[in-house]
Every structure is written in C-alpha cells, then in structure tokens.
Specification:
Blueprint lengths: L1 H35 L17 H7 L4 H30 L6 H9 L6 H12 L6 H8 L7 H4 L1 H25 L4 H9 L4 H12 L1 H15 L4 H6 L11 H11 L3 H31 L1
Helix pairs in contact: 1-14, 2-14, 3-8, 3-11, 3-13, 8-11, 9-10, 11-14, 13-14
C-alpha cells in the first residue's frame, strides 16, 4: 500500500513539469500545423480560409527551396568534418602534460560561450572584412590581394564561423573521453612496437567512437537550425548561395508575410530533422551496443 501511495505521490509531483513540457512542445507545433493549412498573410489579413496543400506547394516550388536543402546539409556535414577532425587533434594535444594546461583548456572552450550573433559580427567586421579585417591584413603582408570571403565564398565562410563556435564543444567531449583511456593499454601497445599512428588508429580512435557519435548527434540537431550567422553576415546571398532552410522559412514567412507558407516550411524542416535524427540514432545505437 505504501508503495502505491509513493508512486501516486511521485506522479502527482511530476504532473506540473510534464504539463508544462507538453504545453511548451505541443502548442507551438499545433499552431504551426494549423497555419500550414490556412491562408494567412501579414500584408493582407482579409485573405483567410482553408488552403489545403497550397502552402506546401508554394514553399517547395520556391526557387530557393532545393538550394536551401543542399546548403543546410552542406553546413551540417562541413561543420561536423571540421569540428570532429580538429577536435580529435586538439584533444590529443591537450591530453599531453603541458605548462598552464588548465588555462589553455579554459581558453579553448571560451568560443562556445560566445553568442552566435556576437560571433557573426566579430567574424564579419574584424576578421573577414576585405578592407580592414585580420585576414585582409595577413594577405597584404604576404603580398596577396585580400579575399572577399563573404562575397566570394559565402557558404564556406558560414561553415567556418559555425565550426569555430562548435569546435570547443567537440574538443571538450573528445578530451573527456580520451582521458578515460587506460594509460597501461597505451604503454603496452608501445612496448609491443606499435608506432604513434598505429596506437592512434587501433587504440585511441576506437575508444573515441562513442564520444564522436554523441558529438555528431548533438551538433547535428543544432546545425539544422543555423540562422543568426547567415542573417548577420550574408543575408542568404549572394542569390541563394548561403540560404539554408531556416533562413528560407524566415524569408517566406516573415519578409514575404506569408505565414501559411512559412508554417508549411517549418513542418518540412521538422520532417527533414526527424529523417536525419533517425539515421543518427541508429548510428549511435550501433556504437553504444558495440
């Protein structure tokens, strides 16, 4: 009897939190679904009524739709390649005993705490500006013409900015996993004649497999929604060169005033995110079961 009362009390205490969580998730989703099938324009509120699938048709036939899908996936893949690759390298270096190791680690993770709009402004005006930016000064120092990064390589520039923000996160997770590796195992491999490359490939990298999958999963969830960096630096241009799915939804729904089409785009983004999540969860599951 006491056990049943305890369970009832536990459920009662959890009810407010669960209710808030459901409202927090379900209400925005329900409103998005509702507006996706309605005619609702900010510029002409008189237009109303059931729209059927016309909002979805309008969104997916937008000239920027397929470029936005491609750019969204390219941003995700590009940032993951940079952060995981450099993250492993930095984790290997930070795992070595060096003077001021604690300070170095703090400085290493500091970019992760910079807000995306602030990071975008810094990169746009202080680093990538072709007139007075740091990269332009370096180019002139070596006798080269400064590169207009945001104008000539907009998507690559976005990938660099976002990767700079997420590299500390990947490094921290991978460094934590690396420090759990037994020193005796590495020493035994060294005594058996395994060189640095073989120790890395056969001992360290397999040990980091789970940490790498966690980094990929968490980062992908956030990278599918990159928006602030694009809005501040390139504005989605030139043309559609740096327009991703969230920015296209903003253009259609907010700038274009077509709330119905913007909501339809939001549902398309949810479907895309869930498709990606399914593949990632399967990959994570295989690694965790290994």
């Amino acid at each position: 009897m006491a056990t049943k009362q305890t369970h009832r009390l536990a459920r009662l205490m959890m009810t407010p939190s669960v209710a808030v969580l459901l409202v927090w998730m379900i209400v925005p989703l329900a409103l998005t679904i509702w507006f996706a099938f309605q005619r609702y324009r900010l510029t002409n509120p008189a237009i109303s009524g059931f729209a059927g699938v016309s909002n979805f048709s309008f969104f997916v036939t937008d000239p920027a739709f397929w470029p936005a899908i491609f750019n969204t996936l390219l941003i995700v893949v590009g940032v993951l390649v940079i952060t995981v690759g450099l993250g492993i390298g930095l984790a290997l270096m930070l795992d070595q005993p060096i003077w001021g190791q604690g300070i170095v680690r703090i400085l290493m993770i500091s970019p992760f705490f910079v807000m995306p709009p602030v990071a975008a402004v810094i990169w746009k005006h202080e680093l990538m500006n072709p007139t007075w930016g740091v990269f332009a000064a370096i180019s002139r120092f070596f006798g080269q013409e400064p590169v207009n990064w945001l104008g000539n390589y907009p998507l690559f520039s976005i990938i660099l900015i976002v990767a700079w923000q997420w590299l500390p996160f990947a490094t921290l997770i991978l460094l934590t996993a690396m420090q759990s590796l037994s020193e005796e195992q590495k020493e035994a491999a060294e005594m058996d004649g395994a060189n640095v490359f073989r120790r890395f490939w056969y001992i360290i990298l397999p040990h980091l497999a789970r940490a790498i999958t966690v980094v990929i999963l968490i980062q992908t969830i956030y990278l599918l929604g990159v928006y602030a960096e694009i809005q501040i630096t390139t504005g989605g241009g030139p043309g559609f060169a740096s327009t991703n799915l969230p920015f296209l939804i903003y253009n259609v729904g907010v700038l274009g005033g077509n709330i119905g089409a913007g909501a339809a785009g939001g549902l398309v983004a949810v479907v895309l995110a869930n498709i990606v999540a399914v593949f990632l969860m399967r990959a994570v599951g295989r690694n965790l079961d290994a």
